[in-house]
């Protein structure tokens, strides 16, 4: 089992300056680099205080400059918002800087507000994703973009320089928010990034569907073990941990529902997002219950309680790595650092051999 730190860059309700939030997130990044974490990960989000991380590759370039051994990853780069030539070049550069320690995480995005700001029709997202993914992944393997008939991205043949020096096979992951995305991710050869926004039973069911598609498309290669996203809060006092976890994780997840307008987003009317309909209906029926369920599927408590919860999560998912968000929901930075220190001192050593 490996452990990653997932930077969040959340400025709930604009209670602080964006500058202060970024400085503190960088401080915590340095802390985890020095305290036993294996990797650092970054999301991509735009325009709001939900997560102020518009360029994960830029942040991760800073990360690899702080350490010669830390692994890095995107969770995820929303590729329909980008030009494929630029993605291929920038990923190649970052992988050179990281000496091959970069895991490329890709996704399609679910927020209409962000799609509008990027001037990309959301109903084109799946077609654009498929086309960009094929262009970029081929370029990262061959070092070249070839001229082919394409609907959205007709491109002249060009070499990628610096030339990619290491295959991304085995270093590609994807977030699949809906069941129809699972065969696409399997076809691309991408491992799964699991987010605890659905029940463990649903997560297990969808992971099984993915493995079935993988076996059909890659019969000679076992499906990669998934990565598991977790939101953590660790404290010596169980009651304090419970109260703080409900405060911070609850605030974070209510911001998720607000950002995506889950429960009232109208995704069922958008081409390519029909698979979210049933999930959204459940959220609309009981949003508070959905928030509480999210809190319960994450790892908070005393160190022993967190060890127990993550052991259970591992049993349900057979994950190869835990990606820990630890600074969110208006949490003071000192509390985040204290929580991370307990996680690094007690939880990581106890679970390394899972």
Automatic annotation (TrEMBL):
SUPFAM superfamilies hit by this protein: Bacterial luciferase-like
Luciferase-like domain residues: 1-315
Protein known as: LLM class flavin-dependent oxidoreductase
Organism of this sequence: Nocardioides humi
């Amino acid at each position: 089992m490996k452990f990653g730190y997932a930077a969040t860059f959340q400025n709930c309700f604009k209670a602080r300056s964006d500058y202060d939030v970024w400085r503190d997130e960088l401080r915590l990044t340095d802390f985890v680099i020095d305290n036993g974490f294996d990797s650092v990960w970054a999301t991509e989000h735009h325009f709001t205080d939900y997560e102020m991380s518009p360029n994960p590759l830029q942040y991760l370039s800073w990360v690899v400059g702080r350490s010669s051994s830390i692994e890095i990853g995107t969770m995820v780069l929303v590729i329909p918002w980008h030009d494929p030539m630029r993605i291929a070049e920038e990923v190649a550069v970052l992988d050179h800087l990281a000496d091959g320690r970069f895991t490329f995480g890709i996704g399609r995005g679910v927020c209409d507000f962000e799609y509008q700001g990027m001037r990309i029709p959301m109903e084109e997202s799946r077609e654009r994703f498929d086309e960009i993914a094929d262009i970029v992944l081929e370029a990262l393997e061959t070092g070249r973009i070839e001229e082919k008939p394409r609907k959205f991205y007709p491109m002249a043949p060009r070499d990628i320089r610096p030339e990619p020096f290491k295959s991304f096979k085995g270093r590609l992951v994807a977030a699949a928010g809906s069941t129809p995305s699972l065969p696409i991710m399997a076809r691309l050869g991408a491992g799964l990034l699991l987010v605890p926004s659905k029940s463990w039973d649903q997560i297990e069911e969808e992971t099984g569907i993915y493995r079935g598609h993988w076996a059909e498309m890659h019969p000679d290669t076992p499906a990669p073990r998934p990565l598991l996203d977790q939101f953590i809060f660790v404290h010596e006092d169980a009651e304090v941990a419970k109260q703080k976890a409900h405060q911070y994780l609850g605030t974070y997840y209510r911001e998720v529902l607000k950002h995506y307008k889950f429960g009232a987003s109208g995704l069922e009317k958008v081409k390519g997002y029909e698979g979210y309909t049933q999930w959204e209906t459940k959220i609309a029926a009981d949003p508070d219950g959905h928030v509480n369920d999210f809190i319960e599927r994450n790892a908070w408590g005393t160190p022993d309680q967190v060890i127990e919860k993550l052991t259970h999560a591992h049993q349900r998912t057979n994950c190869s790595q835990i990606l820990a968000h630890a600074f969110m929901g208006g949490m003071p930075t000192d509390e985040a650092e204290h929580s991370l220190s307990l996680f690094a001192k007690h939880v990581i050593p106890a679970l390394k051999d899972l």
